[in-house]
Amino acid sequence: MKRLFISLYLLLSLSLLGIGWTLDSIWQKSVDDSPVIDAPFVALAQLLTQIPEPQRQIYLDKINKDPALPLHVYATNEIALPPGETLMPNKVFTTTTDDSHQLQFIKVGDQVLVAGPQIIDPYAGLRSVLTLFFYLSLAMVAMIWVWPLSRDLRTLRHATQALGQAKWDTQIELANSSQVKPLAMTFNEMSRHISSLIENQRHLSNAVSHEIRTPLARLKFALALLPMYCKPEADSERRDQIMDDMQIDIKEMETLLQELLSYASLESSPLHNAAPCNLSEIASHTVAKLQQHQSVPIELIVDNPDIMQQGEAPMIERALQNLITNAQRFAQHQIKVHVGEDAEQRFIEVIDDGEGIPVDEQDKVFVPFYRSQSAQNGNKGHGLGLAIIKRIMQRHHGEVRLTSRAGETNFTLYWPKKD
What are residue 309's DSSP bridge partners? Predict the structure, then answer.
């Protein structure tokens, strides 16, 4: 809005100066309001002093062909002047007869030369036309500025109405020269954010209705059977098995709820407690922790032991841990973790030699609650691991990339260098 105010102020100021200066120049060229306008009248009076008094009126009648400017010579005693006024040679005295006419007097020896009555402002019509043109020009300049603004504001109003009608994908397209372009960009960002929130709410509803329903149904069924196996003559092993299954169902629901809370917190929470993090150390610690009790070896490749990145170390470690855990489910013989950097970015690669992700699924794996249809996946997990990784990287102003083919899948965490 500051830009809008400054542009309007400058436009009106420069328009006033430009139009005013132009019209003033036209007026000065057309009409000379300086005292020199009386010079011909003074010169005529000086000429009449050289002519005998009886012949002066005859001379004026011969030379004066303009009926709009009568010229007469009167004796001094025939002229009545306002109190305190006197006539002097070479000095013109002007008085008005009404609102639009005037008389001019100048002394010629013992006589007085009178011009008029004549129109006071013969250019009043031109002055009115120029004044009207001045205001019309201002109105035109204001219209040139206001009309695109009004059009863009009308577009913005229609977009807000569409958004109010639950059309969450509403976007505004304005020219880069538009005064409200920043406002439109803010609106588009807000619309995208609202659309994302609505989509997440839809996913959450689906998760609650589908993911929790299965373990909850198993729990209800187990609780219905439990009294039967609590009797003294009941099979104790079967009872223990039911109790273990119930614990598994409860843990499954707890895991889902924890992932949902983590995913939601990453959406609303900005980056806090950012500090320099050693990516090499984080990778080494994570690999050592996840290598335990796993048959598939993890090879760690570190280009530089001191690769630093600004961020939250626990969040970066969690993203890497999710990637390695995901790779352990699919790898056949080996997993590689590569930490490096180049001139433009820092990165951590996690590569496994599994069956690969189909091309038509590679754009979907980062969508919340989406699970790969791979037989090896076995419909495990809740489909939030990669979605959480994506949000962690967005929170750190980076991104996660995927390339996959049969026998090799590469997930890479990228951070652009800003220093």
Answer: 277
Burial 119-142 (b: 16+ CB within 10 A, else e): eeeeeeeeeeebeeebeebeeebe
Kindly report, residue by residue over 70-117, the tens digit of the pLDDT: 887 888 777 777 777 777 777 877 777 776 677 788 888 878 888 877
**Are residue 297 and residue 238 in the same domain, yes or no?**
no
pTM: predicted TM-score of the whole model, two decimal places: 0.52
Q: What is the CATH number of the domain that holds 365?
A: 3.30.565.10
**Interatomic CA distance for residues 404 and 402, integer angstroms:** 7
Find out whether 136 and 156 touch, Cβ atoms under 8 Å. no
Mean pLDDT, residues 21-29 taken together: 65
Instruction: Give the closest residue to 94 by CA, choosing from 25, 156, 164, 37.
Output: 37
Residue 153, exposed/middle/buried by CB under 10 A (0-12, 13-18, 19+)?
middle
Does 393 lie in the same domain as 280?
yes
Say how far apart CA 322 and CA 312 lie, in whole Å.
16
pLDDT in tens, 149-161: 778 888 888 888 8
User: Which range among 141-155, 334-348, 383-397 shows the weakest confidence by mean pLDDT?
Assistant: 141-155
Q: Do 183 and 259 sit in the same domain of this protein?
A: no
* pLDDT for the residue numbered 25: 67
Beta carbons of 239 and 229 less than 8 angstroms apart: yes
What is the residue range of 78's domain? Answer: 34-122
Q: End of a domain among 78, 100, 122?
A: 122
b/e code 218-257 from CB counts within 10 Å (16+ = b):
ebeebeeeeeebeeeeeeeeebeebeeebeebeebbeebe
Site of tokens 């009555």:
117
What's the pLDDT score for residue 411?
93
Mean pLDDT value of segment 390-397: 86
The tokens describing 181, both together, are 């372009």
